[in-house]
Amino acid sequence: MNKDLLDGRLLFAIPKKGRLHDKCLELLAGADIQFRRPNRLDVCLVMNHPIALVFLPAADIPSFVGNGDVDLGITGHDVILEAEMQDQVTEIHRLGFGKCALQVQTPENGPFNSVEDLAGKRVVTSFDVIAGAYFAKIDERLNLTGDNKTKIQYVGGSVEAACALGLADGIVDLVESGDTMRAVGLHAIATVLQTEAVLIKSNVPHRAHHAPLIDLIASRIAGVIAAGKYVVCEYNIRRQSISEATAITPGRRAPTISPLEEEGWVAVSSMVEKKSVANTMDQLMKIGAEDILVFNLDNCRV
Ligand SMILES: Nc1ncnc2c1ncn2[C@@H]1O[C@H](COP(=O)(O)OP(=O)(O)OP(=O)(O)O)[C@@H](O)[C@H]1O
Ligand SMILES: O=P(O)(O)OC[C@H]1O[C@H](OP(=O)(O)OP(=O)(O)O)[C@H](O)[C@@H]1O
Ligand SMILES: [Mg+2]
User: Fold this and answer.
1) Which residue, 9, 126, 184, 197, could crosslink 98 as a Cys pair with Cβ 3.0–4.6 Å?
2) Which of 176, 177, 184, 196 most suits a substitution to test ligand 2, by most atoms within 8 Å of the C-beta?
3) Per-chain mean pLDDT for the chain
């Protein structure tokens, strides 16, 4: 692509593959950021905004954003810390996907069942910066020095194979469902950190002229995230039960309450967190609510 085509455009980095890629495409669609990505091209122009999307490995995005090579990006909180870019980028929003934990794992029936047991031994990981700092503190606490310190070795992937191959006494790797860990006979002995996908912007000042567009994208993305988190719950209830109903469905500011044509009855409409809606409906039934309806949100600004 001709570099002039990118002039003046806000550069937005998106994971090109892996666990975060599909969710990012959904977010872009929800935020009405329209583009066509020609086969195998990693840079493409957005049709309805002065933006270019740059598709990069998730682990490279923190340094691209932190160094000001691109303005905005989506990646994991974990890889920002691993790239030591937390002071060069600002996390604008947590995005609610890519949630997992970075955990210290050892063979289930082995001799190392705490990080103190494992300290001084061989640890294999793709997160050698984070794991190195983590074990350095433990080594210091246990007065392990020189050759007795924990030996951290970097591998680029398939970390979980290291113990079975006899290359490691323990690993530090991501765990979501725990299926991978259990499948290879490992168990978690400590959690180093929790992570999820985040929207980040560069702290490099020469990109500041893009601030209004960054605010617009951030607000649209926040709307898409909130729309996935909430549903609208509507129901009818007797007027005398309004205060109980309001306690169960307080809404974000307050529920909308409108009179029904039938004397003594009102209709209530309120946003409710998706994850607790079944429980909310049970409670509404108990106070006599009728015709309880739940609607998904396509998009919102809240
Ligand atoms: N199992 C998982 N569940 C949830 N989020 C995850 C999981 N694995 C990784 N992530 C998140 O996604 C980010 C990118 O990891 P991912 O493994 O998808 O990228 P990749 O290694 O570039 O891709 P691939 O594994 O396909 O080569 C991680 O830094 C982490 O934030
Ligand atoms: O707890 P789980 O739900 O099993 O998820 C954890 C697995 O997901 C990631 O691997 P990924 O699929 O990205 O493969 P990779 O090891 O090749 O990066 C991570 O490295 C773990 O291996
Ligand atoms: Mg991976």
Assistant:
1) 197
2) 176
3) 95
